[in-house]
Write a structure and sequence with these properties.
The chain is an alpha+beta fold. It has helices spanning about 10-20, 40-45, 65-75, 90-115, 125-145, 160-175, 180-190, 195-210, and strands at about 1-5, 25-30, 55, 60. The chain has two domains: about 1-80 and about 195-210, Glutaredoxin (3-Layer(aba) Sandwich), CATH 3.40.30.10; about 90-190, Glutathione S-transferase Yfyf (Class Pi), Chain A, domain 2 (Up-down Bundle). Pfam families: GST_C, GST_N.
Length: about 210
């Protein structure tokens, strides 16, 4: 049985969304970050950073959301959710997966760190304007790459859309404007996917059952 260690409204949703798309059974282990459980000795034995998500599959433990998505897709899925390793489409898929982490998410996490994640004495509010500018630059690149396609690889939804979509929802929660018409339409296609809604519901249930 797969176990997902997570907390609602975090990167954990990328993993649960992927599992719901795959139709794979899993156990959700709620890590109460607000009570400091991420920094506990028991959880740091799983993820030394104290962050979520983490995934356990038999003896394997993974801690980076992009790596978890590709692992799950390779083991439990098939194209088009995750293209075949070594194919041209897989190369393009992984390019966008890396873009989501390195370009699209990075300025949002900068904002997050300097709003709430870093110790107060390490926060620098002056970075907010630059981070917002960086996010807009990444949005322009994403919009150009998406073009008139339904999803980032074309007509078919893939794991890269989970990572990109989750990051766009994160940007919206941070009140960053997303004005490109194709990105707005893309967000609307993603937000009501049954697998995403089911993942959110299960995460909330896990949190309220504590």
């Amino acid at each position: 049985m797969i176990t997902v260690y997570g907390y609602p409204k975090t990167r954990t949703n990328r993993v649960t969304w992927m599992l719901e798309e795959l139709g794979v059974d899993y156990k959700y282990h709620f890590v109460d970050l607000m009570k400091g459980e991420g920094l506990s000795k028991s959880y740091r034995a799983i993820n030394p950073s104290g962050k979520v998500p983490s995934l356990a599959d038999d003896d394997l433990i993974l801690t980076e959301s992009a790596a978890i998505l590709t692992y799950l897709g390779d083991k439990y899925g098939a194209a088009p959710l995750l293209p075949k390793p070594g194919s041209a489409l897989r190369g393009t898929h992984d390019q966008w997966l890396c873009f989501a982490i390195s370009e699209l998410e990075q300025p949002l996490w900068t904002i997050g760190k300097h709003k709430f994640a870093l110790p107060k004495e390490r926060r620098v509010v002056e970075v907010f304007e630059t981070a917002a500018w960086e996010f807009q630059k990444a949005l322009a690149l994403l919009s150009a790459g998406l073009g008139n396609k339904d999803y980032i690889l074309g007509a078919d939804f893939s794991a890269a859309d989970i990572l990109i979509g989750h990051t766009l929802f994160w940007g919206m929660s941070f009140k960053q404007p997303i004005e490109q018409e194709n990105l707005v339409a893309y967000i609307n296609r993603l937000k009501n996917r049954p697998a995403r809604l089911s993942a959110i519901e299960k995460e909330e249930q896990a949190a309220t059952s504590q």
